[in-house]
Amino acid sequence: MEVFRLEHVEKTYKNEGREFQALKDISLSINEGEIFGIIGMSGAGKSTLVRTLNRLEKVTGGSVSFYGRDLAGLSLPEIRKVRRQIAMIFQNFNLLEQRNVESNVMQPLRIAGVPKDMGRRKALEMLEVVGLTDKKNEYPARLSGGQRQRVAIARALAADPKVLLCDEATSALDPKMTGEILDLLKEINRKRKLTIVIITHEMSVVEKICDRVAIIDDGKLAEIGEVREIFRNPRSEAASKLVLPGNPFDPSGRDSRLIRLVFDGTAAGRPFIAELVEQTGKKVNILSANTKSVGGIGYGQMVLELPKGEADQELIISFFRERGLSVQEVTRRE
Amino acid sequence: MSEYIIETIGRGIIETLQMTFFASLLAYAAGLPLGILLYTTAKGRILANRPVNLVLGFIVNIMRSLPFLILLVLLIPFTRFLTGSSIGTTASVVPLTVGAIPIVARMVESSLSEVPDGIIEAAESMGASPLFIILHFILPEATPSLVFGAAINIATVLGYSAMAGVIGGGGLGAIALQYGYYRYQKDVLFTTVSILVVMVMLIQESGSLITRKIRK
Fold first, then answer.
1. To which H or E segment does residue A157 belong?
2. d(CA B20, CA B17)
3. pTM for this model (two decimals)
4. Which region among A285-294, B28-37, B47-56 has the lowest average model confidence (pLDDT)?
């Protein structure tokens, strides 16, 4: 079931006669129950993109639909009703500083016209989900960043939304708190079957919890797909930049070449470098290697320097390709 | 100072307090909504409306740029029409209110502008209507700043009320003018001015105190 469908979405800002195109021909859909990542460098347009999902930004071309309804056609009261089903959390939390935690969480329920005592019960229930029942009478100023984001999540969930949009929700938090918030989001996604859209500039966030990811580069959709697939085999330059750390090495000689191998958990158990030496007698020089876990599966990557001789180099590359490894040339030439 | 003068000063204090209280109350009754309108109709705000904002801003600026003494004189016919007289405490409330409305409106606008945009965006993302956003997001968040601004405004009205003495208003200002200025009774002048200073300080300090108390 599609929650959002974007077709050829365009967004152009006009400011004193000058035009700026923030989104260019973006088409994608987001499915029910998934955690969908939108990643890009700052200024790539991802914040604008997520705001088209609840029409905080109106598109200037194409269409955005939510469960099959085109958002552009909705009247103001209608879009407000729709927004109640699309909760949002922010980098700066955006809690009311002059209201206590409980009152903050109750805010969406007030908007929905829920009676006060029912609202209170619901707020307490939500604070339990995020583990902050003991803080219900505190004011946001007295909470840590992680706790504030938990309150924001409780507030977002209070009116039983269908989707949760997270706009750089962990960017103001330290790594430990980021981990805790991401675990919480994952748990909420699983337990409540809540669709989550995550905007971030950090690949580590996508690695940790997203099922699918869209890579936005200069207002365009550079690549979209399963996170695992993009890690294994990034096709666009933007994706490669995000997925693979820069290669700091230069080839030692004019004829040598550098390649990068990427392998997933299924191949990680095989000693393929040793196999290469055994079966072909060719030797490679390992310049760097690391592994990380993406969606519970181990991913490894290695930068290898190949010996001189084009025939040998091609032989080695095809040896790896035949074994299902992704091979990319990363040689830099001045 | 004679007993009569002391009695007069006592009555003057009460009149000054009355004028300040009623003029401030009425000025807020009109200035608060006006300030909210100035804020919400500004560019990029929740009820952005350029013509309305321009017209309101223009009126407020004109009213603010008139020296209060001139406004006092200009408003005499209007005051007489409303209260049946242009002298006395009740009559003074009219020009005081009119003079304070634009000041209050700008102060309110400035307090509301301090509310972070993110909070308003959060409110919009929850599907709140503009009225709900004003009542349940913007005003509560701006309350400490509004209270602080109110202290400044009330102190200003108090100062203006002394000026109203010039055209026959009551209160301490009139006493200072009559006895201190026209009759060279320096002790009366000194006493009344001291009382005014103390009153302004009390208003300002209690405003600051309340602001600190309620700001979380």
1. helix A145-158
2. 5
3. 0.85
4. A285-294
| Each residue's pLDDT tens digit, A30-47 | 999 999 999 998 888 899
Of B132, B137, B214, the CB nearest to A96: B137
- The closest of B87, B102, B90 to B30, measured between CA atoms, is B102
**Chain B residues touching residue A159 (CB < 8 angstroms):** 126
Place A259 in a pLDDT band, splitting at 50, 70 and 90: confident
Whether residue A262 lies within 8 A of chain B, CB to CB, comes out as no
ipTM tops 0.90:
no
- In three-state form (DSSP H/G/I as H, E/B as E, the rest C), the secondary structure along chain B is CCHHHHHHHHHHHHHHHHHHHHHHHHHHHHHHHHHHHHHHCCCCCCCCCHHHHHHHHHHHHHHHHCCHHHHHHHCHHHHHHHHCCCCCHHHHHHHHHHHHHHHHHHHHHHHHHCCCHHHHHHHHHCCCCHHHHHHHHHHHHHHHHHHHHHHHHHHHHHHHHHHHHHHCCCHHHHHHHHHHHHCCCHHHHHHHHHHHHHHHHHHHHHHHHHHHHHCC
The answer to whether B43 contacts chain A (CB < 8 Å) is no
Distance CA B199, CA A66 (A): 60
- Distance (Å, rounded) from C-alpha A74 to C-alpha A82? 9
Q: What residue type is A245 in one-letter code?
A: P
Q: Are strands A297-306 and A257-264 parallel, antiparallel or unpaired?
A: antiparallel
